[in-house]
Design brief:
It is built from twelve helices and 13 strands. By secondary structure, it is α/β, with parallel strands linked by helices.
Length: 447
């Protein structure tokens, strides 16, 4: 009998090379510039003062959320905390909106007419890991930007004309809260949507992959695995063939695309031919069109595996709606970069941080309905990976908490620029149209 063994240690060499390349590209990258005027300097100064006033409350919110993590669609305390903070500023906030019990909405109007901008916040945590994606920071920066703009209009009623909507969007982790809310009208009448995500780098833009989920159930026939194996049809064989097929498919996949799976059921006893096997899988791709194509190929793999093993198969896609790739609006992104420069941060342009480390977010579903941005705010040491215990710790660090004001100001300043500058707004709309305009998300994957 050989003794138990331990897994081998992954080499850090490739990750180190990615970090070194990012540093090299960052050193050479030109800062993002904007040709538009945006809001005037006096308003920006007073917006900064409003953020500074709010900073202690925003820090307290982030700490409270981090200390009491709630998973997707169970964020009752978090939603109420956000609503209470908004109410303390004299605004009405509703909990339980747009079909989500833990959704939050509030808005105010300044002047007459104008455009509508939505500022978004997430606040769900991961099972076991807590706020290892930093959604406590997202919540604090989103509500901070909303309230800072409100306070600015209390002092300067003429600051801009338009409507600012706050949307607390639950259930991002493994789900699609924003898509559910969008189908209930959350983004009707919205001209632009803004939110940020904490990260190990400051980046104005980064690749976020679209994501679909599927459950594959193979159904065979049980038989005694020794006396009559020939009378069985092995569902686990089909699951194994499918899993192997994914590995072979990777040779022909777009390099940044991902397919990953687990066999969650595969039989109960080694002496019985398994009559049922279940595979849970994720499919991710860089563009909506390539996500459609990759989905079809994975679907074909499931049916081919069933045919080879002589078993039945049922493929169920998207228990929750798919998350689409993020489409970043360039004119808005440049305003974000300018606002971050005012705070002493350098927001890296697209391509500096490798797309190899891309993840997914349901903000993609918003970004193909209205122009939007989803920049990254550094709250952790460079290269710290999302969904790790290290990132969870970073999300409550002094570095992260002190960065909330930078993020809140960046979102608020970008929103104010969009509401104040007609030429910028025209460019935002033109960029969105050139990228494909509004996508019919609900029917994108219809056969």
């Amino acid at each position: 009998m050989l003794p138990p063994t331990s897994p081998t240690e992954p080499s850090p060499f490739f990750s180190e090379q990615l970090a070194a390349r990012t540093a090299s590209l960052a050193a050479d990258a030109d800062p993002l510039e904007s040709p538009f005027t945006g809001a005037d300097a006096l308003l920006r100064r007073d917006l900064d003062a409003a953020v500074a006033e709010l900073a202690p409350s925003l820090r307290d919110l982030a700490v409270a959320l981090h200390g009491a993590p709630e998973t997707a669609f169970e964020e009752e305390r978090a939603a109420q905390r956000l609503a209470d903070l908004i109410a303390a500023d004299g605004l009405d906030a509703q909990v339980g909106v747009f079909g989500r019990e833990t959704g939050v909405a509030a808005e105010f109007t300044a002047g007459t007419g104008g455009r509508t901008v939505a500022v978004l916040a997430e606040y769900d945590a991961l099972p076991d890991l807590g706020h290892a994606c930093g959604h406590n920071i997202i919540a604090a920066t989103g509500v901070g930007a909303f309230l800072a703009l409100h306070r600015l209009t209390q002092r300067h009623p003429e600051a801009f004309c338009g409507r600012v909507r706050f949307l607390g969007t639950p259930g991002e982790e493994g789900h699609s809260g924003k898509e559910y809310m969008a189908r209930e009208g959350a983004f009707d009448g919205v001209d632009a949507a803004l939110m940020l995500h904490p990260y190990g780098y400051d980046a104005a833009d980064q690749v976020w992959l679209g994501r679909r989920t599927l459950t594959i159930t193979f159904t065979g026939r049980a038989a005694h695995a020794s006396s009559e194996p020939f009378m069985g049809r092995n569902a686990l064989d089909a699951a194994t063939l499918f899993y192997t097929g994914i590995g072979l498919l990777r040779q022909q996949m777009i390099p940044v695309d991902r397919v990953h799976a687990v066999i969650s059921e595969g039989g109960t006893r080694a002496s019985i031919i398994p009559e049922r096997a279940v595979v849970q899988a994720y499919v991710r791709s860089k563009y909506p069109q390539t996500l459609v194509d990759l989905s079809q190929r994975v679907d074909d793999l499931a049916h081919g595996a069933a045919l080879m093993a002589g078993v039945g198969v049922e493929v169920v896609w998207d228990q929750h709606p798919a998350s689409l790739p993020v489409r970043t609006n360039d004119p808005l992104t440049r305003r974000w970069a300018l606002a971050q420069a005012e705070r002493g941060r350098r927001a890296l342009p697209l391509g500096v941080v490798s797309e190899t480390i891309a993840a997914s977010t349901d903000f993609g579903n918003v970004s193909v309905r209205v122009p939007g941005i989803h920049p990254l705010l550094r709250i952790a040491p460079e290269g710290t990976a999302l969904h790790t215990r290290e990132f969870a710790e970073a999300a409550a660090s002094e570095f992260a908490l002190s960065g909330i004001a930078d993020g809140a100001y960046g979102l608020a300043a970008t929103a104010m620029d969009f509401l104040s500058d007609d030429a910028l707004a025209d460019a935002v709309a033109a960029d969105f149209a050139a990228a494909g305009g509004v996508l019919d998300v609900a029917h994108l994957f219809d056969a």
